Amino acid sequence: MKKLIFTLSFVLCVVFAASAQRNYNSAIGLRFGYPLSITYKQFISEPGAFEIFGGFRGYSYYSWFSVGALYEHHNAIASVEGLNWYFGGGASVFFWTFDNGFAYGDASTTSIGIMGALGLDYKFPNAPFNLSVDWVPTFFVNGYGNGFAGGYGALAARYVLK
Q1: Are strands 147-149 and 107-123 parallel, antiparallel or unpaired?
Q2: Beta-ladder partners of 38
Q3: What are the C-alpha distances in Å from 24 to residues 27, 32, 79, 130?
Q4: Which residues are CB-neighbours of 151 under 8 A, at least 6 positions away?
Q5: pTM higher than 0.90 for the full model?
Q6: Which tens digits make up the pLDDT trace of 67-76?
Q7: Which of 12, 71, 125, 141 is most solvent-facing, going by the fewest CB within 10 Å?
């Protein structure tokens, strides 16, 4: 436990000592993840950005629609122009629908998730495109899927807006 606390403290010190270098202010595109989502990212300061997204996922016996927002703190990776790593957090709401035959029968429910984020963000130097890849661990505080869900994340491809 002491090693974990030391490691987290060290990472936070490095993060706040680093300076971000970004090459765009806002971008819109798709998050190819779980679920497929539309994403919009807007920088509000040199290192800070908000990302909002909404997506849908359907299966034969249940489906969900989700909306969420993340605050992301970006830090430059000096050896590669346009590449940043970021961390942050936010929240999401999942709206679940279950069809007959599932354990809940015909029903629907809502789950609220608290999310973390850790990822890489790359802006192509001579093109209006941005790619990012991230891991978004989520803790559902209620509803279906209550508890920790560590498998969320995505590859996002965005068009940079001027």
Answers
A1: unpaired
A2: 30, 54
A3: 8, 21, 19, 9
A4: 34
A5: no
A6: 999 999 999 9
A7: 125
